[in-house]
Design a protein that fits this description.
Shape: globular
GO cellular component, one term: cytosol
EC number: 5.4.2.2
CATH topology of the largest domain: Alpha-D-Glucose-1,6-Bisphosphate, Chain A, domain 3
Structural class: alpha/beta
Number of domains: 3
Number of strands: 27
Strand content: 25-35%
GO biological process, one term: glucose metabolic process
Cofactor: Mg(2+)
Mean pLDDT: 95
Distance between the termini: 52 Å
CATH superfamily of the largest domain: Alpha-D-Glucose-1,6-Bisphosphate, subunit A, domain 3
Organism: Ciona savignyi
Bound molecules: 1,6-di-O-phosphono-alpha-D-glucopyranose
Low-confidence stretches: none
Helix content: 25-40%
CATH class of the largest domain: Alpha Beta
């Protein structure tokens, strides 16, 4: 196979965000060699590229198959020895992480824009994961960005083409080297991993003995085949338990984001009261939303805390000592109370799963999560939607309670960290910048400290205001300006940051949380009622409505 060196022009905007390079699909489609440039830039940053093995797969969205073919040609020409690719190009993000670890690959290329819509007018994304199976750290993605800005050429074997729809192994000679492409079933290894972690037999008995009615909604993302295999075939739930299970290139025109707005179908069905447990996944299968009977919403922050408190219901944690917990800074402190109770270490990281990997690799932390519907453990180095659902099923089986009862029992023991998040999507970048500048100026002059903020008849005293700075306890790397925090004297908190996963404009996120003790008379009141004064205070301090021109958020979680 011939290797060509193709001349190209560098792009200045290939800076990976919170999780890879996410752009409107048209950016990849209409700009010459945009995709090729980025893949070549990734490869040039991999130590030991010659002779290495990489895993490649995606969430089934528009362009995934084409970009896999391009990746094959470019990887071959760059001296990669072997690619492991999911059949039909399908691999969930957690599956890629598991495969990298299982086959000791050097890394993996994941083709996904996660929860962002897909299709020619949606988004596409490319992300690199390192040898531990986790997202490349910022030092690595910064390097990719630097390389991309001056890239003058890429290497390609144009003659290589592989049938990725059929399982099989393909071998090519490139120069003096052999280049192998293994097309594997993207589901099998992942299912095997889940069977090592959970007691499938006892979950299966629980589902059948309680005639549990489940609804797993894959939102036409990557998780359909995984859910069918695990929930129906392995755990014996009937076929109606898995919906929107065929991965579609445009997610059926939907927004594959498992939250109360975009998974409304599921929420409405759960509200009818006929189903016991609902779960939704995002496009690439790393996020999850848990909904109980009658539409009882389990906040991701509570979900993490409940799994932490009940980790002994999961065989994996009985075998492997649990050493500590972690959460991203904007995530509520619900899990912190559990850590304190169990005498575990607790880590607070910036937003982004990439910050958890070091802690896990160093044996400091076993279980972690984020408010953005991500939960996971050290079985891999990505958040894992199906893992979270199986953890919940294990806990329900262990306690023989409904999801709502499990949460109520948890609050009555630990108290409740009531949490909500307001997202203002696709705000003009300049306007979003002004919001952050206003908040940063208030940090600078400390003018709000000690002030009393009053809304809806409640008053709060501002105790602290800063911009979160993280020093990685393993390698000492520093991440600055990871979100503006306003802490009040009663422990309540407001956090503001700009999303790093949008593809156009800016998304402002405002996170609000407040702690209620286990005996508080409002303990079980709706979060919206409890947090309404703090929301007003947050909007007043940040001036979001006036600066962004938005009277309402796009999404409330
Ligand atoms: C990614 C990251 C998560 C992060 C989320 C939201 O998730 O892996 O760690 O919490 O983005 O980030 P942001 O607030 O910057 O938009 P995913 O599921 O999109 O890959």
């Amino acid at each position: 196979m011939n290797v060509l060196i193709e001349t190209t022009t560098p792009y200045s905007d290939q800076k990976p965000g919170t999780s890879g390079l996410r752009k409107n699909t048209q950016v990849y489609m209409t700009q010459k060699y945009y995709t090729e440039n980025f893949i070549q830039s990734i490869l040039m940053c991999i130590d030991g590229l010659e002779g290495c093995t990489l895993v490649v797969g995606g969430d089934g969205r528009y362009m995934v198959k084409d970009v896999i073919q391009q990746s094959i040609k470019i990887a071959a020409a760059n001296g990669v020895s072997k690619l492991i690719i999911g059949q039909n190009g399908i691999l969930s993000t957690p599956a890629v992480s598991g495969l990298i670890r299982k086959y000791s690959a050097t890394g993996g290329i994941i083709l996904t824009a996660s929860h962002n819509p897909g299709g020619p007018n949606g988004d596409f994304g490319i992300k690199y994961n390192i040898a531990n199976g986790g997202p490349a750290p910022s030092s690595f993605t910064d390097k990719i960005y630097q390389v991309s800005k001056s890239l003058q050429s890429f290497r390609i074997c144009p003659e290589i083409s592989v049938d990725i729809n059929t399982i099989g192994s393909h071998s090519f000679t490139v120069g003096n080297n052999t280049f192998i492409v293994d097309v594997i079933c993207g589901v099998t290894d992942y299912v095997d991993l889940m069977k090592e972690i959970f007691d499938f037999q006892s979950i299966k008995s629980y589902i059948s003995s309680q005639s549990l009615k489940l609804r797993f909604d894959s939102l036409h993302g990557v998780m359909g085949p995984y859910a069918k295999k695990i929930i129906c075939e392995e755990l014996g739930a009937d076929s109606s338990s898995v919906v929107h299970a065929i991965p579609l290139e445009d997610f059926g025109g939907g927004h594959p984001d498992p939250n109360l707005t975009y998974a409304k179908d599921l929420v409405d069905q759960m509200k009818e009261g006929k189903l016991d447990l609902g779960v939704a996944f995002d496009g690439d299968g790393d996020r999850n939303m848990i909904i109980g009977k009658n539409g009882f919403f389990v906040s991701p922050c509570d979900s993490l805390a409940v799994i932490a408190a009940n980790h002994s219901a999961i065989p994996y944690f009985r075998k492997n000592k649990v050493v500590g917990f972690a959460r991203s800074m904007p995530t509520s402190a619900a899990v912190d109370h559990v850590a304190k109770d169990l005498g575990m270490d607790m880590f607070e990281t910036p937003t982004g799963w990439k910050f958890f990997g070091n802690l896990m690799d160093a044996g400091k932390m076993s279980l972690c999560g984020e408010e953005s519907f991500g939960t996971g453990s050290d079985h891999i180095r990505e958040k894992d939607g199906m893992w979270a659902a199986l953890a919940w099923l294990s806990i329900l089986a262990h306690q023989n309670l409904s999801a709502e009862e499990v949460i109520m029992r948890h609050w009555r023991k630990y108290g409740r960290n009531c949490f909500t998040r307001y997202d203002y999507e696709q705000v003009e970048s300049e306007a979003a910048g002004k919001v952050m500048q206003l908040l940063e100026a208030a940090i600078e002059d400390q003018s709000l400290i000690g002030s009393t903020q009053i809304a809806v008849g409640k008053s709060y005293i501002v105790q602290l205001m800063d911009n979160f700075r993280y020093v990685d306890p393993v390698d000492g790397s520093v991440a600055e300006k990871q979100g503006v925090r306003i802490k009040f004297s009663d422990g309540s908190r407001l956090v503001f940051r700009l999303s790093g996963t949008g593809s156009s404009g800016a998304t402002i996120r405002m996170y609000i949380d407040s702690y209620l003790s286990s005996t508080d008379p409002s303990l079980c009141d709706p979060a919206a009622d409890i947090l309404c004064p703090l929301v007003e205070i947050g909007l007043k301090i940040s001036n979001i409505p006036a600066l962004s021109g938005r009277t309402e958020p796009t999404v409330i979680t």
